[in-house]
Amino acid sequence: MTWKQKIAKNAFLLWTGWVLFYALIMYFQVPEIPMVSAIASSMTYNYTYGLLSIIIWHICKRVPYTSSKAVSFIALHFVLAVLFSAMWLTLAYTWWYLFLGREVFDLVGFKNIIGWQFISGVTIYFLVCGIFYTIIYYKQFRDKELRETELKTLTRDAELQALKMQVNPHFLFNSLNSINALITKNPDRARKMMTLLSDLLRASLETQGKSKIRLGEELRLLHQFLAIEKIRFGDRMDVQEDIESGLSPCMVPAMLLQPLLENSVKHGIASQRCKGWISLHIRAAGKKLRICVANSVKQSSWPDSGSHAGTGLDNIRRRLELIYENAFTFSVSSPSPSEFKVEITLPLEQT
Fold first, then answer.
1. Which of 45, 190, 216, 227 has the fewest beta carbons under 10 Å from its own?
2. pLDDT value of residue 164
3. What pLDDT does 114 receive?
4. Alpha helices in the chain (DSSP H)
5. Pick the CATH number of 168-347 from 3.30.565.10, 3.90.180.10, 3.30.930.10, 3.20.20.80
Protein backbone atom coordinates (compact mmCIF):
# COMPACT_ATOMS: atom_id res chain seq x y z
CA MET A 1 0.00 0.00 0.00
CA THR A 2 1.42 3.36 -1.05
CA TRP A 3 1.72 6.38 1.25
CA LYS A 4 -1.20 8.13 -0.51
CA GLN A 5 -3.38 5.04 -0.17
CA LYS A 6 -2.60 4.86 3.55
CA ILE A 7 -3.55 8.53 3.95
CA ALA A 8 -6.84 7.97 2.09
CA LYS A 9 -7.65 4.87 4.15
CA ASN A 10 -6.89 6.55 7.47
CA ALA A 11 -8.85 9.66 6.44
CA PHE A 12 -11.90 7.53 5.60
CA LEU A 13 -11.67 5.71 8.93
CA LEU A 14 -11.29 9.01 10.79
CA TRP A 15 -14.31 10.57 9.08
CA THR A 16 -16.35 7.40 9.67
CA GLY A 17 -15.52 7.52 13.36
CA TRP A 18 -16.53 11.18 13.47
CA VAL A 19 -19.80 10.36 11.63
CA LEU A 20 -20.73 7.80 14.28
CA PHE A 21 -19.74 10.10 17.15
CA TYR A 22 -21.74 12.99 15.66
CA ALA A 23 -24.75 10.68 15.15
CA LEU A 24 -24.65 9.61 18.82
CA ILE A 25 -24.60 13.22 19.96
CA MET A 26 -27.62 14.04 17.79
CA TYR A 27 -29.48 10.95 19.01
CA PHE A 28 -29.03 11.71 22.71
CA GLN A 29 -29.62 15.46 22.37
CA VAL A 30 -32.82 15.07 20.35
CA PRO A 31 -34.57 11.86 21.58
CA GLU A 32 -37.34 12.11 19.01
CA ILE A 33 -34.83 11.58 16.17
CA PRO A 34 -34.45 7.86 15.29
CA MET A 35 -30.91 6.49 15.23
CA VAL A 36 -31.17 5.78 11.50
CA SER A 37 -32.08 9.42 10.84
CA ALA A 38 -29.25 10.61 13.08
CA ILE A 39 -26.74 8.46 11.18
CA ALA A 40 -28.12 9.58 7.81
CA SER A 41 -27.93 13.23 8.86
CA SER A 42 -24.41 12.82 10.22
CA MET A 43 -23.25 11.07 7.04
CA THR A 44 -24.70 13.87 4.89
CA TYR A 45 -22.94 16.60 6.83
CA ASN A 46 -19.62 14.96 7.60
CA TYR A 47 -18.92 12.92 4.48
CA THR A 48 -19.64 16.09 2.50
CA TYR A 49 -16.94 17.85 4.51
CA GLY A 50 -14.75 14.79 4.03
CA LEU A 51 -14.96 15.23 0.26
CA LEU A 52 -14.14 18.94 0.61
CA SER A 53 -11.14 18.01 2.77
CA ILE A 54 -9.49 16.55 -0.34
CA ILE A 55 -9.27 20.09 -1.69
CA ILE A 56 -8.05 21.33 1.70
CA TRP A 57 -5.29 18.70 1.61
CA HIS A 58 -3.95 20.01 -1.71
CA ILE A 59 -4.15 23.58 -0.42
CA CYS A 60 -2.11 22.66 2.64
CA LYS A 61 0.52 20.99 0.45
CA ARG A 62 0.81 24.08 -1.75
CA VAL A 63 0.73 26.66 1.07
CA PRO A 64 3.48 25.75 3.57
CA TYR A 65 3.80 27.68 6.80
CA THR A 66 6.67 30.18 7.06
CA SER A 67 7.27 32.31 10.13
CA SER A 68 8.08 35.33 7.95
CA LYS A 69 4.57 35.23 6.45
CA ALA A 70 2.58 34.09 9.49
CA VAL A 71 0.02 36.92 9.28
CA SER A 72 -0.79 36.36 5.61
CA PHE A 73 -0.82 32.60 6.23
CA ILE A 74 -3.45 32.91 9.00
CA ALA A 75 -5.47 35.47 7.03
CA LEU A 76 -5.55 33.20 3.97
CA HIS A 77 -6.77 30.21 5.94
CA PHE A 78 -9.38 32.28 7.76
CA VAL A 79 -10.85 33.38 4.42
CA LEU A 80 -10.71 29.78 3.17
CA ALA A 81 -12.37 28.55 6.38
CA VAL A 82 -15.30 30.90 5.77
CA LEU A 83 -15.58 29.83 2.13
CA PHE A 84 -15.38 26.11 2.90
CA SER A 85 -17.94 26.40 5.70
CA ALA A 86 -20.34 28.13 3.29
CA MET A 87 -19.68 25.51 0.61
CA TRP A 88 -20.21 22.71 3.13
CA LEU A 89 -23.58 23.98 4.30
CA THR A 90 -24.70 24.75 0.76
CA LEU A 91 -23.90 21.22 -0.42
CA ALA A 92 -25.33 19.53 2.69
CA TYR A 93 -28.66 21.37 2.51
CA THR A 94 -28.78 20.84 -1.24
CA TRP A 95 -28.67 17.05 -0.66
CA TRP A 96 -31.46 17.30 1.91
CA TYR A 97 -33.53 19.60 -0.30
CA LEU A 98 -33.31 17.14 -3.20
CA PHE A 99 -34.71 14.36 -0.96
CA LEU A 100 -37.17 16.21 1.29
CA GLY A 101 -37.95 19.48 -0.46
CA ARG A 102 -38.49 22.76 1.39
CA GLU A 103 -39.84 21.07 4.51
CA VAL A 104 -36.29 20.16 5.49
CA PHE A 105 -35.74 23.75 6.62
CA ASP A 106 -38.65 23.46 9.05
CA LEU A 107 -37.64 20.00 10.29
CA VAL A 108 -34.14 21.02 11.33
CA GLY A 109 -34.97 24.51 12.59
CA PHE A 110 -32.78 26.10 9.92
CA LYS A 111 -32.88 29.67 11.29
CA ASN A 112 -31.92 28.57 14.78
CA ILE A 113 -28.98 26.34 13.94
CA ILE A 114 -27.44 27.76 10.74
CA GLY A 115 -25.22 30.18 12.66
CA TRP A 116 -23.85 27.46 14.93
CA GLN A 117 -23.37 25.15 11.97
CA PHE A 118 -21.42 27.86 10.15
CA ILE A 119 -19.12 28.34 13.16
CA SER A 120 -18.79 24.57 13.40
CA GLY A 121 -17.74 24.45 9.74
CA VAL A 122 -15.03 27.07 10.34
CA THR A 123 -13.79 25.16 13.40
CA ILE A 124 -13.70 21.86 11.51
CA TYR A 125 -11.70 23.54 8.74
CA PHE A 126 -8.96 24.60 11.16
CA LEU A 127 -8.96 21.16 12.82
CA VAL A 128 -8.60 19.47 9.44
CA CYS A 129 -5.80 21.89 8.45
CA GLY A 130 -4.02 21.19 11.72
CA ILE A 131 -4.16 17.45 11.09
CA PHE A 132 -3.00 17.85 7.50
CA TYR A 133 -0.08 20.13 8.35
CA THR A 134 0.96 17.71 11.08
CA ILE A 135 0.97 14.86 8.56
CA ILE A 136 2.82 16.91 5.92
CA TYR A 137 5.54 18.17 8.24
CA TYR A 138 5.94 14.77 9.86
CA LYS A 139 6.46 13.19 6.45
CA GLN A 140 8.95 15.91 5.48
CA PHE A 141 10.77 15.38 8.76
CA ARG A 142 10.91 11.61 8.19
CA ASP A 143 12.04 12.04 4.58
CA LYS A 144 14.76 14.44 5.71
CA GLU A 145 15.92 11.95 8.34
CA LEU A 146 16.00 9.16 5.77
CA ARG A 147 17.92 11.33 3.28
CA GLU A 148 20.43 12.35 5.94
CA THR A 149 20.87 8.72 7.05
CA GLU A 150 21.34 7.55 3.48
CA LEU A 151 23.71 10.46 2.78
CA LYS A 152 25.84 9.56 5.79
CA THR A 153 25.95 5.96 4.63
CA LEU A 154 26.90 6.86 1.07
CA THR A 155 29.45 9.43 2.26
CA ARG A 156 31.04 6.89 4.55
CA ASP A 157 31.06 4.29 1.77
CA ALA A 158 32.60 6.80 -0.64
CA GLU A 159 35.29 7.69 1.88
CA LEU A 160 36.04 4.05 2.58
CA GLN A 161 36.05 3.24 -1.12
CA ALA A 162 38.37 6.16 -1.89
CA LEU A 163 40.69 5.13 0.94
CA LYS A 164 40.56 1.55 -0.26
CA MET A 165 41.51 2.59 -3.80
CA GLN A 166 44.40 4.58 -2.38
CA VAL A 167 45.78 1.78 -0.22
CA ASN A 168 44.73 -1.27 -2.21
CA PRO A 169 47.56 -3.63 -3.22
CA HIS A 170 47.51 -2.54 -6.86
CA PHE A 171 47.82 1.15 -6.06
CA LEU A 172 50.45 0.60 -3.39
CA PHE A 173 52.35 -1.84 -5.61
CA ASN A 174 52.61 0.73 -8.41
CA SER A 175 53.54 3.53 -6.02
CA LEU A 176 56.06 1.48 -4.05
CA ASN A 177 57.49 0.00 -7.23
CA SER A 178 58.04 3.51 -8.55
CA ILE A 179 59.64 4.51 -5.23
CA ASN A 180 61.88 1.44 -5.34
CA ALA A 181 63.01 2.31 -8.85
CA LEU A 182 63.77 5.88 -7.79
CA ILE A 183 65.69 5.07 -4.59
CA THR A 184 68.99 4.51 -6.37
CA LYS A 185 68.38 6.75 -9.39
CA ASN A 186 66.81 9.74 -7.70
CA PRO A 187 66.55 9.48 -3.88
CA ASP A 188 65.04 12.95 -3.61
CA ARG A 189 62.12 12.06 -5.84
CA ALA A 190 61.66 8.77 -3.98
CA ARG A 191 61.44 10.62 -0.66
CA LYS A 192 59.06 13.11 -2.22
CA MET A 193 56.79 10.32 -3.42
CA MET A 194 56.79 8.72 0.03
CA THR A 195 55.89 12.07 1.59
CA LEU A 196 53.08 12.60 -0.92
CA LEU A 197 51.72 9.14 -0.26
CA SER A 198 51.71 9.78 3.48
CA ASP A 199 50.10 13.21 3.07
CA LEU A 200 47.43 11.77 0.80
CA LEU A 201 46.40 9.14 3.34
CA ARG A 202 46.37 11.69 6.17
CA ALA A 203 44.29 14.17 4.15
CA SER A 204 41.82 11.43 3.21
CA LEU A 205 41.28 10.60 6.87
CA GLU A 206 40.61 14.26 7.64
CA THR A 207 37.52 14.26 5.38
CA GLN A 208 35.78 11.47 7.31
CA GLY A 209 32.40 12.48 8.71
CA LYS A 210 32.09 15.54 6.43
CA SER A 211 29.48 15.67 3.68
CA LYS A 212 30.86 18.98 2.32
CA ILE A 213 34.27 20.61 2.41
CA ARG A 214 35.77 23.77 0.92
CA LEU A 215 36.81 23.57 -2.70
CA GLY A 216 40.33 24.54 -1.65
CA GLU A 217 40.55 21.46 0.60
CA GLU A 218 39.19 19.22 -2.13
CA LEU A 219 41.75 20.58 -4.60
CA ARG A 220 44.57 20.08 -2.10
CA LEU A 221 43.63 16.41 -1.76
CA LEU A 222 43.32 16.13 -5.52
CA HIS A 223 46.73 17.68 -6.16
CA GLN A 224 48.37 15.24 -3.75
CA PHE A 225 46.82 12.36 -5.65
CA LEU A 226 47.84 13.77 -9.03
CA ALA A 227 51.39 14.46 -7.82
CA ILE A 228 51.82 10.75 -7.07
CA GLU A 229 50.35 9.77 -10.43
CA LYS A 230 52.58 12.33 -12.15
CA ILE A 231 55.65 10.65 -10.69
CA ARG A 232 54.34 7.27 -11.87
CA PHE A 233 53.49 8.29 -15.43
CA GLY A 234 55.88 11.20 -15.96
CA ASP A 235 55.51 12.90 -19.33
CA ARG A 236 52.77 10.45 -20.34
CA MET A 237 50.28 12.40 -18.21
CA ASP A 238 49.43 16.00 -19.02
CA VAL A 239 47.06 17.68 -16.53
CA GLN A 240 45.46 20.99 -17.50
CA GLU A 241 43.62 23.09 -14.92
CA ASP A 242 41.45 26.13 -15.43
CA ILE A 243 40.08 27.11 -12.03
CA GLU A 244 38.56 30.53 -11.50
CA SER A 245 40.21 32.46 -8.70
CA GLY A 246 38.27 33.19 -5.53
CA LEU A 247 36.35 29.90 -5.48
CA SER A 248 38.37 28.18 -2.74
CA PRO A 249 35.80 29.00 0.02
CA CYS A 250 32.97 27.43 -1.97
CA MET A 251 31.50 24.27 -0.46
CA VAL A 252 31.49 21.06 -2.50
CA PRO A 253 30.72 17.45 -1.58
CA ALA A 254 33.71 15.72 -0.03
CA MET A 255 35.45 13.21 -2.31
CA LEU A 256 33.80 14.70 -5.41
CA LEU A 257 36.80 15.45 -7.62
CA GLN A 258 39.16 12.63 -6.74
CA PRO A 259 36.95 9.76 -8.03
CA LEU A 260 36.47 11.71 -11.28
CA LEU A 261 40.21 12.24 -11.75
CA GLU A 262 41.03 8.69 -10.67
CA ASN A 263 38.73 7.38 -13.40
CA SER A 264 40.47 9.70 -15.84
CA VAL A 265 43.88 8.36 -14.83
CA LYS A 266 42.81 4.74 -14.97
CA HIS A 267 40.90 4.91 -18.26
CA GLY A 268 42.62 7.82 -19.94
CA ILE A 269 46.30 7.49 -19.01
CA ALA A 270 47.03 3.97 -17.77
CA SER A 271 45.05 2.34 -20.58
CA GLN A 272 47.27 3.73 -23.36
CA ARG A 273 51.01 3.80 -24.03
CA CYS A 274 51.06 7.17 -25.71
CA LYS A 275 50.77 10.50 -23.94
CA GLY A 276 47.32 11.31 -22.56
CA TRP A 277 45.71 14.39 -21.14
CA ILE A 278 43.29 15.29 -18.36
CA SER A 279 41.57 18.66 -18.03
CA LEU A 280 39.77 20.17 -15.04
CA HIS A 281 37.67 23.32 -15.45
CA ILE A 282 35.88 24.96 -12.52
CA ARG A 283 34.03 28.23 -13.05
CA ALA A 284 31.32 30.27 -11.40
CA ALA A 285 28.29 31.05 -13.55
CA GLY A 286 25.86 33.29 -11.71
CA LYS A 287 24.70 31.34 -8.67
CA LYS A 288 26.06 28.06 -10.02
CA LEU A 289 29.40 26.29 -9.79
CA ARG A 290 30.33 24.49 -13.00
CA ILE A 291 32.81 21.60 -12.91
CA CYS A 292 34.06 19.86 -16.03
CA VAL A 293 36.47 16.90 -16.04
CA ALA A 294 37.59 15.55 -19.42
CA ASN A 295 40.27 13.09 -20.51
CA SER A 296 41.65 11.41 -23.59
CA VAL A 297 40.81 7.74 -24.14
CA LYS A 298 41.58 5.06 -26.64
CA GLN A 299 38.64 4.63 -28.97
CA SER A 300 38.19 1.01 -27.86
CA SER A 301 38.67 1.59 -24.13
CA TRP A 302 35.36 3.34 -23.34
CA PRO A 303 32.79 2.19 -22.37
CA ASP A 304 34.08 -1.42 -22.56
CA SER A 305 36.44 -0.86 -19.65
CA GLY A 306 34.21 1.69 -17.97
CA SER A 307 31.99 -0.51 -15.82
CA HIS A 308 34.03 0.25 -12.70
CA ALA A 309 34.07 3.93 -13.56
CA GLY A 310 30.35 3.82 -14.14
CA THR A 311 29.81 2.55 -10.59
CA GLY A 312 31.85 5.45 -9.25
CA LEU A 313 29.91 7.96 -11.33
CA ASP A 314 26.59 6.48 -10.20
CA ASN A 315 27.72 6.86 -6.60
CA ILE A 316 28.61 10.52 -7.19
CA ARG A 317 25.29 11.18 -8.93
CA ARG A 318 23.33 9.61 -6.06
CA ARG A 319 25.23 11.62 -3.44
CA LEU A 320 24.46 14.81 -5.37
CA GLU A 321 20.76 13.88 -5.47
CA LEU A 322 20.72 13.47 -1.70
CA ILE A 323 22.59 16.70 -1.02
CA TYR A 324 21.00 19.01 -3.61
CA GLU A 325 17.81 17.12 -4.64
CA ASN A 326 16.91 18.73 -8.00
CA ALA A 327 19.25 21.75 -7.74
CA PHE A 328 22.13 20.20 -9.72
CA THR A 329 22.98 18.76 -13.12
CA PHE A 330 25.20 15.79 -13.92
CA SER A 331 26.03 14.75 -17.47
CA VAL A 332 28.40 12.23 -19.03
CA SER A 333 29.33 12.52 -22.69
CA SER A 334 31.89 11.64 -25.35
CA PRO A 335 32.32 14.72 -27.56
CA SER A 336 34.61 12.64 -29.80
CA PRO A 337 35.70 8.99 -29.98
CA SER A 338 38.94 9.91 -28.19
CA GLU A 339 37.47 12.09 -25.44
CA PHE A 340 35.35 11.45 -22.36
CA LYS A 341 33.75 14.25 -20.36
CA VAL A 342 31.82 14.66 -17.09
CA GLU A 343 30.05 17.96 -16.39
CA ILE A 344 28.52 18.91 -13.03
CA THR A 345 26.60 22.04 -12.03
CA LEU A 346 26.09 22.78 -8.32
CA PRO A 347 24.58 25.64 -6.33
CA LEU A 348 27.29 28.18 -5.47
CA GLU A 349 27.69 28.01 -1.69
CA GLN A 350 30.33 30.10 0.07
CA THR A 351 31.30 29.93 3.73
1. 216
2. 47
3. 77
4. 3-29, 35-62, 70-100, 103-107, 110-167, 169-185, 187-206, 215-233, 257-264, 307-324
5. 3.30.565.10
